[in-house]
């Protein structure tokens, strides 16, 4: 399992994907081990993550090779030590600090155990399986909702039931609605679409030929999530691919790309105007006062910036941010409402942990775009914007995913990574969505 720049066979990738799936399954991003009201199960998941840390270290032969992981390790130490300092200054609860450090640790171990090319292959295969399960379970919810209601369920911290088949879940509120939103193994459809859209981005922007079957499964999975952010990000990824990737590599695809963009935009406009899906997904943008989620998203930007400017060096801390968030949103003339919900992964770092920590977090995220851009500045910027958009709708406060992105970003020039991943060849871009 240790890093290699050589091609790996399907059996190894399947084993890697299985390990990633298990780590994801027992992460804080799932309904079973993230928002479960049963604290014993949440604690069990964190102990298991310690076990997986041991598995990853064992897979590397018990050795941390600094010479080929220099960038990743330096990035990890900067983030790790900076967080300990700001946590101490903010007098954070020890349990929260340990949990956050644990997710940083497992993230860096994943980044050292897999080179990025190998990780991306395993990640896409893993998300393909999760997406198929999520779509299938959602379809059963439409066709035989009574069957879903006879399945086991967990109760989340909001007091709502989530019915589960083990491989996917459905919130009881969503099961009773006109649109049964897919969420896979994750605690909310918005988190589900984040993981899926990242896989879609890998599929389209990495050098190996895109797999059409996986592409369509990812797109359908985002569709069934009925996530506004998900729809926007998927559209952004596809448009950037059609306009930037093909036309930058070879001009003969430019005319076809423009035509596909025209068809794509026209279809999106019709969807917005004439279907109930358009009302469900996009009405909160057209009529922002009609949806509380729009107000929460605006607060995630405006209020986090206000807090960061008021507490620039080490932030306000995780313990105090909710009350401050409520106070500022109540007093704001920009935000039409008030909330304690902080749903912005990126700006939360600035508000809770300070501007220096936020810059380290952002820099690693930006550098990650090198791995998908092949040196093209517009693609690099587009991928970075995509990640920012993904972070607007959900706060992955206790999650390994943002740190996996960051540490791969800091390690984009490590010896075990090929500069800008691999060179793109003309034959690898001929794929139609």
Helix content: 55-70%
On the 0-100 scale, what is the average pLDDT?
Answer: 84
Tell me the Rg in angstroms. Answer: 21 Å
Uncertain segments are: 1-6, 247-253, 419-433
Strand order of the largest sheet: 1-2-3
Distance between termini? Answer: 33 Å
Number of helical segments with 4 or more residues: 19
Structural class, by secondary structure, is mainly alpha
| Share of residues in strands | under 5%
Instruction: Please describe the biggest sheet, giving its number of strands, its sense, and whether it closes into a barrel.
Output: 3 strands, antiparallel
Which of globular, elongated, flat, extended, rod-shaped describes the shape?
globular
The SSE string, one letter per element, is HHHHHHEEEHHHHHHHHHHHHH
Number of strands: 3
Assembly state (oligomeric): single chain
Describe the structure.
The structure is a single chain. This protein is an all-alpha fold. 65% of the residues lie in helices and 2% in strands. The chain has 19 helices and 3 strands. The chain has helices at residues 10-25, 39-59, 70-89, 94-113, 116-143, 145-149, 172-175, 189-205, 212-225, 228-249, 254-274, 276-286, 292-310, 321-331, 345-353, 355-368, 370-373, 377-393, 401-410; strands spanning 153-155, 161-164, 169-171. Helix 3 (70-89) packs antiparallel against helix 4 (94-113) and helix 8 runs antiparallel to helix 18 (377-393). The longest helix has 28 residues, at 116-143. It is globular, with a radius of gyration of 21 Å. The model is unreliable at 1-6, 247-253 and 419-433 (pLDDT under 50).
């Amino acid at each position: 399992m240790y890093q290699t720049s050589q091609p790996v066979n399907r059996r190894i990738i399947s084993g890697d994907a299985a390990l990633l799936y298990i780590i994801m399954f027992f992460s804080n991003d799932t309904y079973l081990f993230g928002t479960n009201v049963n604290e014993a199960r949440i604690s069990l998941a964190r102990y298991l993550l310690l076990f997986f840390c041991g598995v990853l270290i064992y897979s590397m032969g018990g050795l941390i090779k600094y010479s080929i992981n220099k960038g990743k390790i330096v990035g990890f130490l900067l983030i790790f030590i900076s967080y300990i300092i700001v946590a101490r200054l903010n007098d954070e609860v020890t349990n929260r600090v340990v949990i956050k450090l644990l997710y940083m640790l497992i993230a860096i171990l994943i980044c050292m155990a897999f080179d990025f090319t190998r990780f991306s292959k395993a990640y896409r295969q893993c998300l393909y399986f999760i997406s198929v399960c999520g779509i299938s379970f959602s379809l059963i919810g439409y066709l035989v909702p009574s069957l879903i209601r006879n399945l086991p369920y967990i109760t989340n911290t909001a007091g709502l039931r989530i019915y589960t088949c083990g491989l996917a879940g459905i919130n009881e509120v969503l099961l009773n609605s006109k649109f049964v939103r897919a969420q896979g193994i994750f605690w909310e459809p918005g988190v589900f679409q984040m993981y899926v859209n990242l896989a879609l981005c890998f599929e389209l922007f990495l050098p190996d030929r895109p797999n059409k079957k996986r592409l369509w499964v990812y797109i359908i999975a985002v569709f069934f999530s009925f996530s506004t952010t998900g729809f926007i990000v998927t559209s952004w990824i596809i448009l950037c691919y059609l306009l930037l990737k093909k036309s930058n590599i070879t001009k003969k695809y430019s005319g076809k790309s423009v035509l596909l963009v025209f068809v794509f935009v026209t279809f999106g406009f019709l969807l917005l105007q004439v279907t109930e899906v358009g009302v469900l997904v996009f009405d909160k943008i057209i009529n922002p006062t009609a949806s509380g989620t729009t107000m929460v998203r605006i607060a995630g930007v405006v209020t986090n910036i206000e807090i960061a400017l008021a507490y620039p060096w080490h932030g306000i801390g995780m313990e105090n941010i909710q009350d401050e968030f409520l106070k500022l949103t109540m007093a704001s003339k920009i935000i039409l409402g008030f909330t304690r919900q902080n749903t912005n992964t990126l700006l939360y770092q600035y508000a809770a942990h300070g501007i220096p920590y936020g810059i380290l977090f952002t820099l690693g995220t930006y550098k990650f775009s090198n791995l998908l851009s092949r040196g093209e500045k517009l693609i690099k910027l587009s991928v970075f914007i995509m990640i920012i958009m993904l972070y607007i709708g959900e706060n992955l406060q206790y999650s390994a995913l943002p740190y996996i992105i960051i540490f791969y970003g800091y390690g984009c020039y490590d010896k075990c990574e090929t500069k800008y991943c691999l060179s793109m060849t003309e034959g690898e871009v001929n794929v139609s969505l």
